[in-house]
Structure formats: C-alpha cells, structure tokens
Write a structure and sequence with these properties.
571 residues, alpha+beta, Tumour Suppressor Smad4, six-stranded antiparallel beta sheet, 37% helix
C-alpha cells in the first residue's frame, strides 16, 4: 500500500497488520483522544509514546507496510540485527508471555539448500545443547512464505562489536568471558557437536558480563549425514569456517575435525579479545590459512604488556599447530582460566548498537542487490531491504522500547484476530480499557522510600525507576537518570538491573549493575535518595520473631525477679 496521508488510512493499516484488533484500535482512539483530523505521524507518535506501538512498527506503518508484523503468532517489535541469512527481530511470544529473537530467512535464500541446511543445523544444535552459556533455540518452522527460527533473546554486545568499539578487553574480564564460552563449548562437545565457526561475532556478552555462544550454522553433528553432505556440496569439504580463526586441520578437511579444532579457534578469538587484532592479518584468505599452518602470531605481551604470562601461555596452548599439543577438552580450558578470571559489568547503549548494525547492514544490502536484485513487495517488512530502504522518521527518540517488557494498556489476552472490513476505520466506543497486569508476580512485595516511608506495591514483572514520567517508581527532585534501573522478577527471585550509564546504583552500600534483591535490600543513589525492598510475609515473620524475643526477655526478667525475692525471703 501507499504511505498513509490521513489518520483513517493509518488505522486501516494498523488493523491489517494484525498488531491490534478492531476493538483494540477503537480503544486506542478513545483512550488517547485520536481523531480523523490528525496527521498520521501525530497518531503514530502518540501510540509510540504510550507504548501501544514500538518505533519500528510505527515507522513501517507510516511507510505503508503492514505484512510480516505477525509470523505464526509472534509479534515483531524491533530489528535486532541483520546477517547473511536474513533479519533477526525482537518479537513477542504471546502464548508464553516472553520476548524472543525471531530469525527470519531472507526471501532470496528460501530455495537455497545451503542456507536451509545451515538453519536446520543451528536449530538442532541450539535445541539439543541446553546450557546457560549457549543461546537456546525454541523452534524452527515455516509459514510457507518464510522460514524462521525462534531463539532465546539476549540483549548483548558481540565480542566483535566490543573490541571494535572499545578496543582490547581487560585480561581478567577476557578470562571470564572465555571461561563461560569454554563451558558452553564443552556442553556442545558432550553432545557430539563441533561448532566449526568460533569467532568474536558468535559470542554475546550482556551488561552483567554473562556470555553465550551462538550460531551453530556450520556445526558438525553426529549422525547428521544429510546436512553435512549439503554443506560439503555447496561450500566444499575443505575450509568450512572463517579464515581468521580456522584450525590448520579444519582448513584441510572440515569433515574429519574433532573438538580440538574448536579449541584452536577459541584461542584465536581470545587472541583478538586481548590484542584487538587478528593473529594473521594477511590480505587473502589463502594466505591467512597458510599462516595458521606455518606461522607464529605476534606475541600478545608485545602488544599488551599488562596481560598475565599465565594467560598468554593458555592462549598459546589453545593455538598450538598440532591438535595433540592443545588442551584435550574445552573443560580443561575452563579450569585453566578460572583462577585468572573476574566478572565485570559492561556499559553499552543497546539501542545505539542496533543502529550501528542497521547502518552496516544497509551498506552490505546495497552491495548485494547490485549483484542480485530482488523484487520486494512494498507492503512487507520481513527482509533487510524492506526496512533499510527508507529513511527513519526517528520515532525511536520518543521512548526506549529495547529494555521494556511492559504490555501496552490496550492489549487484551490472545484471541483470534478479526480481519479488517472495507469502509471507514474503527470508531471510539464507550467502553474503557483496563490495564493488563502480570499474574505471575508474587504478592505482598513493595518498595518503601527511605525518607518519606511511602510504599509502592510491585505488581509487574518489571518496574522501572527514574525521573521519566513512564517510570513506575518516579524519583523527581533527585539526581538519578530518566531510566536509572529496573526491578525485575524472573519467576523465582527479584533482580536489579542498572540502566543508567552515568549515575551509579548502590545495593546495601555497594555499586551494582546486576544483582539479586532480597527482603530489606536497600537501593540508594549518589544523593542519598532510595528505597528498600519489603516482603509483607517476611515482615510478619520478623514481627513474630520480635514478639517471641520480647516474651523470652520478659520471662527471663520475671524469673530473675522471683529468684531475687526467694533469696531475700530465705535470709
């Protein structure tokens, strides 16, 4: 469709997109006092500001696009990244009430057997491994029009991006990152899965320092002859992998490698993390592969003198030319790294990171379309070209939706979506919507201000703290940021996550970026303002313990009086 020029046309597009039902559109019109005289962009901004739409959704609708927002029940919210296979989106899994990463294969790869084999390998490995340091795959499926995978969502920065944007990693932090990757890799190896493409771009680190391995699209799996044959026919038996990180034996025959090939690639990747440069910076791929076979990379301590000699020795052992000279398993790598590692939080702007990914993808997309132009339906959003082509209207500035887990007020429980009918757009009705709250939050928890003693009941899985108007715990008159931190319930415990990049958050007197909160945990800020977490059940238990103590003291005091009187009477 053409871009909407009137509010009515925008409402029709919104209904066609299946992001909202006809009833929900009517509620939005009434609740936010929208009318037909408004410009489409004004309507879009209002809906973004009130978290009914994300900026990505609104911008695509303003371009006239409405297809692809809902894929087999997964509602697309934002673009997470773009790769050689296609787009990765942040999406809502309405059935399980969670955010997921939705990897959608680009249209021009739909009949590509190599890409299909890679997607199947990645999905199978991700479903089999089930380890906290490996991105989990929930599902792989096809609508007939698109092939897609549903994966665990991690709002992290890749090691490649981390080094490119901030330079070499602190060596203790690098040890912790690679300790975690080694544990995830060990879990894969125990399942008979060889990754074959360990590199910085396939390692994600979140703001708390948690690290996960991803992308098993080139993996070698036991009893998986069909996909292995497909990869071999398309890419060749020799040199499945990335030249900057490939083990010498893998470059010779990718099909016969064992887990020690992954350990070599892990060593090369750690070399990059510590030095900010690849081990062999030769220009051609053939020269890089030959260098892995016969050359020694520049010494790490020559580039970074502060790196521990023990760490250098571990990297050199991982990168030994002969497999027998390397660590025998990834678990042994983890054991060697453990005493040298230290977990450190990371500060990065996730929204800015995604913007950089989009810019890089735009450049790659333009180059690829010159070589292989494809016809993209104007109404579709499910390809890189569809959302990279048009300039952004910058609705993202209205609100940060990447960190939000809130549910818009006009949303209702999932039910069959009514199809739009011809004619005028929906009109407002007299019914008022009610805010939907989560039901899996434990009752009786609240935060109590330290100075005013005012209490705020926690009723949502995520509660935002800051000076911005959308924060559930508003902190006016303080020095905290607009989005200072969040208090989140993960199904078993409360956790605090730092959001501000300039103002620290203290828990029980210590600056923290990610930490579990308990009853009586005290959260404070640099100006002394803050609150404590309170559990009514724990308060009740405290009161019982206090009464019992008083009773014991009273009985003890009474017994003491009687003893004194007995002595007096005796004498």
């Amino acid at each position: 469709m053409e871009a909407p020029t009137a509010a009515n046309e925008f409402f029709v597009l919104l209904q066609k997109s299946e992001l909202l039902t006809a009833g929900q559109v009517r509620k939005a019109i009434e609740q936010f006092e929208l009318d037909e005289e408004m410009a489409p962009e004004t309507v879009a901004r209002t809906l973004v500001r009130n978290r009914v739409l994300t900026p990505f959704q609104a911008e695509r609708l303003l371009e006239g696009r409405y297809r692809g927002f809902v894929i087999d029940g997964y509602r697309v919210r934002e673009v997470l990244g773009v790769g050689g296979m296609g787009c990765v989106y942040i999406a809502e899994d309405r059935d399980r009430n969670r955010k997921v990463a939705l990897k959608v294969m680009a249209n021009h790869h739909a009949l590509d057997p190599g890409m299909l084999a890679r997607m199947k390998l990645e999905a199978r490995a991700g479903m089999e491994i089930q380890h906290p340091n490996v991105i989990e795959t929930y599902r792989i499926d096809s609508t007939g029009a698109v092939n897609y995978m549903v994966l665990e969502l991690m709002r992290g920065i890749s090691l490649h991006e981390l080094v490119a944007l901030h330079g070499p990693v602190n060596w203790q932090m690098a040890c912790d990152i690679f300790l975690q990757v080694a544990l995830g890799l060990h879990a894969a190896h125990k399942k008979g899965i060889i990754h074959r493409d360990i590199k910085p771009a396939n390692i994600l680190v979140d703001s708390a320092g948690l690290t996960k391995l991803l992308d098993f699209g080139l993996a070698k799996l036991d009893k998986n002859e069909v996909e292995e044959f497909s990869l071999a026919m398309i890419f060749g038996h020799d040199c499945l992998g990335t030249p900057d990180y490939i083990a010498p034996e893998q470059a010779a025959d990718s099909n016969s490698v064992d887990r020690r090939a992954d350990i070599y690639s892990l060593g090369c990747t750690m070399y990059v993390a510590l030095t900010g440069r690849v081990p062999f910076p030769q220009k051609s791929n053939a020269a890089k592969i030959e260098a892995h076979r016969i050359l020694t990379p520049r010494a790490i301590r020559e580039i970074r003198p502060e790196v521990s000699e023990e760490v250098v020795a571990i990297v050199e052992k991982m990168m030994a030319k002969t497999p027998d000279d390397r660590f025998p398993s990834a678990l042994e790598v983890a054991k060697a790294l453990k005493p040298l590692s230290a977990r450190k939080p990371l500060n990065f702007d996730f929204r800015h990171l995604v913007t950089l990914r989009a810019k890089q993808a735009r450049d790659k997309d333009k180059a690829s379309r010159k070589a292989q132009p494809s016809a993209i339906p104007r109404s579709s959003i499910t390809s890189a070209s569809a959302w990279l082509d048009n300039p952004s209207r910058h609705l993202q500035a209205e609100i940060d939706t990447f960190a939000g887990d809130d549910t818009p007020a006009i949303r209702q429980p999932a039910h069959p979506v009514s199809r739009p009918t011809a004619g005028s757009p929906p009109r407002a009705t007299q019914s008022r919507p009610s805010v939907q709250t989560r039901t899996n939050v434990p009752s009786g928890w609240s935060v109590r201000r330290l100075k005013s003693k005012q209490q705020h009941l926690l009723t949502s899985v995520k509660t935002r703290v800051g000076t911005a108007s959308e924060c559930e715990i508003a902190m006016p008159g303080t020095i905290v940021d607009a989005r200072q931190c969040t208090i989140e319930y993960d199904g078993s415990k409360w956790q605090l996550k730092q959001e501000s990049r300039s103002q620290p958050t203290f828990v029980n007197g210590n600056a923290e970026a990610f930490i579990e909160l308990r009853h009586r945990s005290e959260v404070t800020f640099a100006d002394g303002s803050g609150f404590e977490l309170i559990s009514e059940s724990e308060l009740g238990a405290e009161q019982k313990r206090r009464r019992a103590l008083l009773m014991v003291l009273a009985l003890g005091f009474g017994a003491g009086i009687l003893a004194v009187l007995s002595v007096v009477l005796f004498f």
